[in-house]
Amino acid sequence: MIVVNLDIMMARRHITLKELSERVGITEPNLSILKNNKAKAIRFSTLDALCRVLDCQPADLIAYTDEETDENQSN
């Protein structure tokens, strides 16, 4: 499972969803979808803009987690 850690990077950079939206040029609802891990895909141009504004690497925003392992640890 791919997880988007946008909320973590936003907290580290002390930036609001509204400010990030304005600086990246993406609507707040679309950023919210990413932030809440509801997105099915992300464009490289969006990832590039987020990395530029947040001064981070793609790996800071996106991580892979073994869904099956996570579910087993929860039980």
Explain this structure to me?
The chain has helices spanning 6-13, 17-24, 28-35, 44-54, 58-61, 67-74; strands at 2-4, 62-64. It is mostly helical. The protein has a two-stranded antiparallel sheet. It is globular and about 35 Å long. The two termini are 18 Å apart. The mean pLDDT is 91.
Question: How would you summarize this macromolecular structure in one to three sentences?
Answer:
The protein contains six helices and two strands; from the N terminus they run E-H-H-H-H-H-E-H.
Give the biggest beta sheet: 2 strands, antiparallel
The domain tally reads 1
Q: SSE string, helix = H, strand = E?
A: EHHHHHEH
Please name the CATH architecture: Orthogonal Bundle
Mean pLDDT: 91
Side-by-side strand order of the widest sheet: 1-2
Low-confidence residue ranges: none
What is the top-level CATH class? Answer: Mainly Alpha
Structural class by secondary-structure content: mainly alpha
Distance between the termini: 18 Å
Number of strands: 2
List its salient traits.
434 Repressor (Amino-terminal Domain); two-stranded antiparallel sheet; mainly alpha; single chain; globular; 75 residues
Q: Layout of helices and strands, plus pairs?
A:
Elements: E1 2-4, H1 6-13, H2 17-24, H3 28-35, H4 44-54, H5 58-61, E2 62-64, H6 67-74
